[in-house]
Write a structure and sequence with these properties.
Helix content is about 45%, strand content about 5%. It has three helices and two strands; from the N terminus they run ββααα. It has a two-stranded antiparallel ribbon. The two termini are about 25 Å apart.
């Protein structure tokens, strides 16, 4: 089992809201509307893929990041002395994680 600290929460996607843009008569070249004045050419088009992404994001917001039942079970096992530590498995997993990180840096 790998622990990846690079995973960000769905709400911190880094997406920023920007000022609305208008396009030049369908040429695809964006032009800024005069500040404070809405343009008659402003429009928004939501594709089916965008709608699917929004639905997926909503679903992901409802999924817990941590399995609290599993955490509680492990806490209980530790407190009762039933939790067995296998150093060979830990070492193998740690080495595999380091290898993956090194391969990702080369790419």
């Amino acid at each position: 089992m790998k622990i990846d600290a690079s995973v960000k929460s769905p709400t911190s996607s880094g997406v920023k809201e920007t000022a609305p843009r208008a396009s030049n008569a369908g040429t695809g070249t964006p032009t800024a509307a005069p500040q404070g004045k809405p343009s008659s050419q402003d429009n928004v088009r939501i594709t089916a893929l965008s709608s699917q992404l929004q639905a997926m994001e909503s679903n992901m917001n409802n999924v817990p990041v941590v399995d609290s039942a599993r955490v509680e079970a492990i806490k209980l096992a530790i407190s009762e002395g039933r939790f067995k530590i296998n150093p060979e498995v830990i070492a193998d997993s740690l080495l595999a994680t380091v290898k993956d990180l090194m391969q990702n840096q080369k790419s």
